[in-house]
Amino acid sequence: MDYYLSVATFAGLNVILALSLNLISGFCGQVSLGHAAFYGLGAYAAALCSVAGLPMGVSVAVGMLVAGGFGIVTGFAALRVREDFLAIVTMGVGFLFLGAVRKQAWLGAEMGIAKIPSPLDKWGYAALAIGGAVAVLLLSLHVRRSWMGRAFGAVAQDEDAARSIGVDVSGYKIAAFFIGTAAAGLAGGIYAHMTQLVVPDAFNFVQSVTILAMVVVGGIGSTLGVVAGAVLLTLMPEMFRFINDYKLLVYGGLLLLVMRFSPEGLAGLVHRVTGRRLA
Asked: CA 39, CA 203: separation in Å to the nearest integer?
């Protein structure tokens, strides 16, 4: 039972991460290749607060704010660059985060932060992760149908045209980064308390690629499709153990296959088969 609870917990965390990236890249069209850095920022901030004696709820909230704060900084960078250049900038954020935490003794350097207080049992963390995933899912669906979602869509389609009709392009870009990175920080805070250990390698470029793969396989821009992609790519390594040794290769191959044969991912496949679009 502990094994299944652990898988369910990580599935919930991956759904949060995939949906948080989809808010930035799928809704607002801002390419991000360093999303694991914000996952890590949430985890490290929550770990430091918890070790200092703050309750778990406060620690996780601080982690969300720290990740969201750095997301705003990245959002300002997004105002100057687009597409390929933005991808390079966000990738640089990920490498900058790894380089910083590996050199700081107060962050544990390569050894990370251990003995993080863990007030819940496995059932509690599974419920918390799944509950967080449901909350971010509902937030995504609400944003998608709101005036903010329409503004995000306008920015994603054509920034200049959106600006010409009065859309605050800069403000919405920054808002997308803040909401998406704060949600990633939520996943990081839960992860830190559940594992009781945070180390730099848990938030490396491979993790960023994994999150991106979940979004693309599910169908970038589709909320329910991204949920399906996150769950699928969480379960695949558990169902086929040999994938763990070649995870990056397998995920890279999946991205190529999806982009070649079904650019809209699982959501597009469902649309072609049933004629209905996923939210």
From this structure: 7
Angle, helices 205-218 vs 265-274, to 10°: value is 10
Distance CA 101, CA 94 (A): 11
Tokens for 124?
A: 């509690």
Confidence of residue 252 (pLDDT cuts 50, 70, 90): confident
From residue 91, give the alpha-carbon distance in Å to each of 32, 64, 84, 97, 269.
7, 20, 11, 10, 30
pLDDT in tens, 253-279: 877 888 777 788 888 877 777 767 777
**Three-state SS at 114:** strand
Find where tokens 């499709």 sit.
Answer: 225
pTM for this structure?
0.94
Give the residues across from 198 on adjacent strands. Answer: 113
φ, ψ (nearest 5 deg) of residue 92: -65, -35
Q: How far is CA 1 from CA 60, 133, 200, in A?
A: 26, 21, 29
State the Cα–Cα distance between residues 198 and 44, nearest whole angstrom: 7
pLDDT, average across residues 171-185: 96
CA distance 67 to 46: 10
Phi, psi (rounded to 5 degrees) for 262: -150, 75
pLDDT tens-place string over residues 28-76: 999 889 999 999 999 999 999 999 999 999 999 999 999 999 999 998 8
